[in-house]
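hey so u asked for the seq, here:
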Amino acid sequence: MGLGSMFGSSSKETKGEDFRVEKTPEEWKRDLTPEQFYVLREHGTERAGTSPLNHEKRAGTFVCAGCQQALFDAGTKFESGTGWPSFFEPLEGAVETSEDRAFFMARTEVHCAACGGHLGHVFPDGPAPTGLRYCMNGLAMGFEPQK
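ran it, structure tokens below
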């Protein structure tokens, strides 16, 4: 049983699935930086400690860099010490999960529910109240400060 099923998240494969926001690979390449394309569309990972979003402390909302879907309220962000922006809970309906068996291990991948973009992974070692750590790639997200 993967984390997705253990914690009540729905599992949804990103390949061949219908999403509200769909683009061809060429359209994604046009709309994203090469680094964002690598993370969001090719399931890449940025180097730890490189995202400016690690230091973002203002009230606001973290959004998908691919489609602007609201993903995480800034109030759910915490310092995990991992080098990636971490959150204990996504906004309702904002993300989906699927099993990731890359690198000879089973992990739970987190992707945007609207466009299927790869965001990162979720682990069962986060703080209360959920006990979860949504470890996200900063390149996969943007930040909209509260007005």
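The chain has one domain: 24-145. The chain has three helices and nine strands.
lmk if thats what u needed
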